[in-house]
Design a protein that fits this description.
With 127 residues, this protein is an alpha+beta fold. It has four helices and three strands, in the order ββαααβα. It starts with a strand and ends in a 37-residue tail after the last helix.
């Protein structure tokens, strides 16, 4: 059993995110067998939770393709730098917020202290 580590670097973010797996001899010889749908989703979810960046299918394929190629070439550590959008940026277009639809109670002004000074209309001067 051998440990392999993948390091994800994201442009404009200084942190690096590491994900490690352990492969047996048959998986080392054919690493594509290890990356089943469940393993791919596990990898995607882990990187998304750690980096808070959205990893779409294209980015995930790129990560896995790089990792498989490096494993086949005998490298224990692999890395890639991607330009990934933040999760909050990518989900903003799907926002369906209707806001507060509750009608508040009206506030009536207190007009009890207002009185006309000299009738309803001002005095008119007809000279």
């Amino acid at each position: 059993m051998v440990n392999y580590t993948f390091i994800l670097h994201i442009k404009e973010i200084e942190d690096e995110f590491r994900y490690a797996i352990t492969l047996d001899k048959s998986q080392e010889d054919n690493p594509a067998l290890f990356f089943t749908l469940s393993e791919r989703e596990k990898l995607r979810n882990w990187f998304q939770e750690q980096s808070l960046c959205k990893i779409n299918g294209h980015h995930l394929d790129k990560i896995i393709k790089t990792w498989i190629q490096d494993i086949e070439e005998g490298f224990r550590d692999s890395s890639i730098t991607l330009d990934l959008p933040l999760m909050i940026e990518s989900d903003i277009s799907n926002l369906k917020e209707s806001g507060n639809q509750e009608i508040s109670d009206p506030i009536y002004p207190d007009l009890s202290g207002i009185e006309p000074i000299s009738g309803m209309l001002p005095p008119l001067n007809f000279n």
